[in-house]
Amino acid sequence: MDFTPTVIDNYVESNRDEAIACLVEAVQIPSVTGDELAFSKVLKRRMEENGLTVETDAEVEGRPNLLADWQGTRPGKRFVFNGHMDVFPPDTVDPGPFGPWAGTISDGWLFGRGAADMKSGDCAALMAVAFLRRMGFDPKGSVLLSYMVDEENGGTHGVQYLLKKNKLQGDFGICMDCSAGKLLVTHGGGIRASCTYTSEPRHSSIRYPGKNALRKAAVAINELYKIDDRLGTVYPENFDQPCMSINLLHAGTAANVHPAQATFTIDRRLVPGEDRYAALKEITDTLDRLKEDDAEFDYQFEISSMSPYLDIPEDDPFIQLLQKSYEQIMGKPVEIFRRAGGSDASFIRESTGMPIPNFGVAEDRGEGGSGRPDERVNVQGYLDFIKVYMMAVVNALS
Asked: Has UniProt tagged this entry with the keyword Zinc (predicted)?
């Protein structure tokens, strides 16, 4: 069989009900970060139903990463599809038009938490491999389907864990994370950390001698925001500005007791060209200066994630192959773009050297995009990206 764009298009359209059912089921299974097990079972079952042997590898019990290798009969290169199974928690104020786990299709859009980020990408890659296998395509080399836990928390128990075990090696690949149907070759990195201050608990009817934990945290947060003020004067070419924010603060146990502990999180976003270790030092230097000025400001600091930025040259041969594959299916050029938000692809790129851009159909940050109450994906766009992924595998491994 010739695996032409027309043949691929016809096959996917003839099997569109199966492909849509796969995505509906996926969105209907809650998989908030830390609770990915149920969704992993759905992906594992569907891969096994399509003849793939699935390896599970979990650093944390109940949070399995999934790996399924499709080996061709001829030696060759390895194509890696990489996706994550975890999603943001539902919005506690706005459940969205149909509820977070609806999987409802309305006016050509499929709604629900994870529809954009990134279950549409997960299912598109799975169906692309399943359809090519059924059509009799014999890859010259192999295709790896990999699905990770913990991406939204920085990938410690997912991508970083598997890279340490050399289980994501390949020659090129696609991270199916949402990129609004565009080909993302560059994205930012980041540092996520927590800082904790402690003090003796006392009844609040008595004036606190010195500074309680929350007051120390407040002073530190104000000092740290001076870093963000500085970053606000940086204007990278063709990229979002670097930034830093404090997005979580936990302190105290009762309204009439001085808090004995205060913990806040730091989210520092990096742009290409920034050194993440220098950025980390700027943060800890700020905290250390407070401690040097006042011994009360002793603190505990924990890094949960330090992700590199992704930067793939536009003239990389694999990027050009993806551009060709998209145009063969869609009949128009694909837009190249860059953004601040990160993905597991940056860890894979740094560790293996392979080109692995973000390439997914769903909106990444606008209306209906990642983490929004109205999160959704266009159904026809999802089907078209199955075709694009199929074409890319055919072009890379024929």
From this structure: yes
CA angle, residues 194, 199, 201, in degrees to nearest 5:
120
Q: What is the pLDDT of residues 64-116, one digit of tens each?
A: 999 999 999 999 999 999 999 999 999 889 999 999 999 999 999 999 999 99
Question: Side chain identity at 91, as an amino acid letter?
Answer: D
Residues 282 and 12: their CA atoms lie apart, in Å, by: 51
Torsion of CA 375, 173, 44, 99, to 10 degrees: 0
Residue type, 166: N
Number of C-beta neighbours around residue 70 at 10 A: 23
Q: Which amino acid is at 140?
A: K
Helix 120-135 to helix 16-28 angle (10° resolution) is 150
Q: Could you give all domains of the chain from N- to C-terminal order, each with its CATH number?
A: 5-187+309-397 (3.40.630.10), 189-307 (3.30.70.360)
Output the CA–CA distances (angstroms, integers) from residue 15 to 103, 269, 383, in the order listed.
Answer: 19, 41, 10
Between vectors from CA 276 to CA 370 and to CA 163, what angle results, nearest 5°? 70
Closest by CA position to 378, among listed 389, 368, 365: 368
The DSSP line for 87-143 is: BPPPPSS---SS-TT--EEETTEEESTTIIIIIHHHHHHHHHHHHHHHHT---EEEE
User: Partners of 71 in the beta sheet?
Assistant: 142
Total count of residues recorded for the chain: 398
pLDDT at 1 over 90: no
